[in-house]
Amino acid sequence: MPPNDENKQQKPALLSRVLKVLIRATVLLALLFILDKLLPSISQQTQSFMVAKWQQLSLMQQEPPTENSLPNPLPEQRLTDTWGAARSQGRSHEGIDIFAPRGTPIQATTQGIVSKVGENNLGGRVVVVVGPGGAGHYYAHLEDYADIAPNDWVNAGDIIGYVGDSGNAKGTPPHVHYGIYINGSAVNPYPLLQKD
Fold this sequence. Notes:
Blueprint: H1 3-60, E1 96-99, E2 105-107, E3 112-120, E4 124-130, E5 136-145, E6 153-154, E7 159-163, E8 175-182, E9 185-187
Antiparallel strand pairs: 1-8, 2-7, 3-4, 3-6, 4-5, 5-7, 5-8, 8-9
């Protein structure tokens, strides 16, 4: 083979290899760039999850609420014991209703971890906070939520939402339904709340 033909074949082969290396390098750089952008948020989510689990474990080792130990979620409003009152479909009321003007800020009654910010059929817009002893503090019929999300830590007195009439309370005077669940069972929150 003449030397000239050999040079012509080597140039395309060399060019092809260089092009393949450049393509691989570009793909690798693109993957590294994507990982660099994703890892901090994945790491942050993992860290947030781990902190929430640690806080939850710590809360489980504390005592659940006792008589007169919790502040009123609507401090300026009068409390009435509506526990056990008849409800539709043969149900009984598993909480108390605290009436206030629409949009009144609702305060967390305990420190704890937000486990739900969302909707359900009966409660409408609801927030659930898991507090000491694993007690679930359930706030329902909200008009809107505060700037909170699941796994957030709240302290007693932090705003978690606003009084409304969502869910099956539509058309009733605005109020918050406040319930407490200990070991999965509803308990009357009225005796646990401080009365002014």
